[in-house]
Design a protein that fits this description.
By secondary structure, this protein is mainly α. The protein contains 6 helices and 2 strands, in the order H-H-H-E-E-H-H-H. The chain starts with 6 loop residues before the first helix and ends with a helix.
Length: 128
């Protein structure tokens, strides 16, 4: 059964009002609705329209990456305030995280490292 016009946006407003600021993923979890559907509605609710006005704003950004890509995700709150600025990417931090993961892979006993000579193994470590 399809929800009536405006029902989902009303539910989103109720949830964000009751539980406080949350990301799109958290709203989807509370509603049990497809992410693409909720995402489109939240995007409309963050725009200042002549009929409804701006009902949600971006309060801040978080990096919650449970099994997902690591990028800043918006945290939405109820109101008509100006949106928070999206944080700029920190290339040094990204590189440091990447190298830490490579080191972790290289220090473990992997079946794929068993066939390498010492020189190949050291070259692979230096590259990473």
């Amino acid at each position: 059964m399809k929800a009536g016009y405006g029902e989902t946006s009303t539910k989103i407003l109720e949830i964000v009002t009751e539980y406080g600021p949350m990301t799109r993923h958290e709203v989807c979890a509370h509603l049990g609705i497809d992410r693409a559907h909720v995402s489109a509605i939240i995007t409309r609710m963050t725009k200042d329209t002549p009929v409804a006005g701006k009902r949600l704003y971006v309060e801040s950004y978080v990096y919650d990456s449970e099994g997902q890509k690591r990028y800043p995700r918006a945290v939405y709150a109820v109101g008509n305030k100006p949106d928070a600025k999206r944080p700029k990417p920190d290339t040094k931090e990204t590189r440091r995280r990447y190298l830490a993961n490579v080191r972790k892979k290289m220090t473990c006993n992997s079946v794929f490292n068993l066939g390498l000579t010492r020189r190949q193994y050291e070259a692979k470590r230096r590259m990473g």
